[in-house]
Amino acid sequence: MAVPLTDDRATHETNPELTAPPTQTSDKSKGTPDLAVKVSTYLWRHRRIRLALLLLLPVSLLVGIYGISLVSLLFNSFYRLDQFTGRLDDTLSLDSWRGLFTTPNVLTAFRTIAIATSVTIASAFLALPLAYFVSRQASKRSRRWLILGIMVPLWSSYLVRVYSWKLILAAEGIANWFFDAFGIGFVLDAILELPVIGGPSLSFSWLGQFIVFVYIWLPYMVMPVQVSMDRVPQSLLDASQDLGAGPSRTFRKVLFPLIVPGVAAGSIFTFSLTLGDYIIPQVVGDSSPSIGYVIYSQQGLAGNLPAAAAFAFVPIVVMGLYLFVVGKLGAFKAL
Amino acid sequence: MAGRRRFGTVKIAATAVLLFLHVPIVLIGLYAFSTEEASFQFPPPGLTTRWFTVAWGRDDVREAVSLSLQVAAVSTLIALVLGTLVAGAVWRTKFFGRNALSLMIVLPIALPGIVTGIALRASINLAGVSFSIWTLVVGHATFCVAVAYNNVIARLRRMNPSMIDASMDLGAHGWQTFRHVLFPQLGSAILTGGLLAFALSFDEVIVTTFTAGNQQTLPIWFFSQLVRPRDRPVTNVVALAVMLLTIIPVVFSVRLSERGDDA
Fold this sequence. Notes:
The complex is a heterodimer.
Chain A: H1 3-13, H2 16-19, H3 34-45, H4 47-76, E1 80-81, E2 88-89, H5 95-99, H6 103-137, H7 140-155, H8 158-169, H9 174-181, H10 185-193, H11 206-230, H12 234-242, H13 247-276, H14 280-283, H15 291-300, H16 305-328
Antiparallel strand pairs in A: 1-2
Helix pairs in contact in A: 6-11, 6-13, 7-11, 9-10, 11-13, 12-13, 13-16, 15-16
Chain B: H1 2-31, H2 50-56, H3 59-90, H4 98-110, H5 113-127, H6 133-158, H7 162-169, H8 174-203, H9 206-211, H10 218-227, H11 232-262
């Protein structure tokens, strides 16, 4: 029970003024329909009914439709696909779950987790100087513009931002032009020849995919890191410097430990969003499947909903474990 | 002072990261004017405004834009109503299942979009509903509620609750208190949430893919161009238009929330 609300109600119930609309002669009550007054007074007094009415519609969407959908996804994963008719067979079976543990699927899962981890680490490294600058060094005026400069990429079109990298990474695109213009095309060639991260061109390499992922999800890391830096009192940093620590030592021993929750909060986004993405792996990269792409193709191309449903629990379980770990680092307090 | 010495390095690094975030967006603008038709050649061989007319005349683009606008408008409206209602219910109240409800609100954006998408598709199939603009709207509203809710609850938490008590003590009845005290304070938060929800919905592709039948929203049209580029000049123009359409609401919402902070 919320103490303030119940208390208020008790006070107002004994106040006859409130229940007597005729005493309301202020111009504000003009044009207010009698019904609205009656209804609002009634709702103010009946907490449970008010709560029920407030929750009726949202709960029917979030629990009634979305919650049930998640549960039915779980059920679907125990069905099996009839190999001959291609129809769903609703006798319970563990086929889809067994299918998860085949070598290609396990490899896909690990590869996706590996890229999500590296994207998260790279985002954290890039986010730190920007967040530090916005939070500690920028003037109040430029700070507003900088925050806008972080928010715009965060909210503006995801697809178009992916597309922009197609322009950049294409063989005839700006990246190659840039390297050639500075006469260092051989550096790019050398990078592309590296095993695992290289490829025929940036568009078709692991490296290219990595860059695009970092670009797309970086703002999600900058925001919480910057907010958690704002919360660190300047006096702590001054004290550290007064006691003789240099800037890098102050950062390592004082500032960084205090912003770990912010980094952890940002990492939830960078990690989860990379884990489930199936668009970027289709557009850039060496065309090895990601977790998201396997789910997408099982459902869409193969029409095997049970297999897709079972595979959908891979990111759910991985995220569950991840949230547990970063929760220990205080991520939820920084959200 | 030791802090001064680092100022330069941090500033350079921060500027580089900011450039990394923005140069690609600027390039989108440049390519919309490129005369090159078949490749992404840089620098563009020439500049033209011809593709804007071409894109404007394309029926598939127009239909996709119009469908996306409709879906975004309706689902934003639903999300705003539902998100505000939940925020009102959760604020300063404890009830059974409150934490579970908060979890259910953020789940559609916390879980990878593909999970939400496939779950909705599975149950739409199960219920025997045919895919239409309404299944799209339900899918979009599901994850937009979180945005609306977050903005409204944040404003409610910053609001001084004794204002409501004061209003009632001064003799205003429930409706007046809502109309003249509560709502004006929530107004800009609701608008901010609405703008962000609109931008989110207008651009969403993952849940859309799974909740659409043969409806083609702009992101779905765009995605098909990404995987198999056909009309590059038209795609470039549409990219610029989509970028502007999503940036404008964001800029407005940031300004609005700044004003909310000052108040």
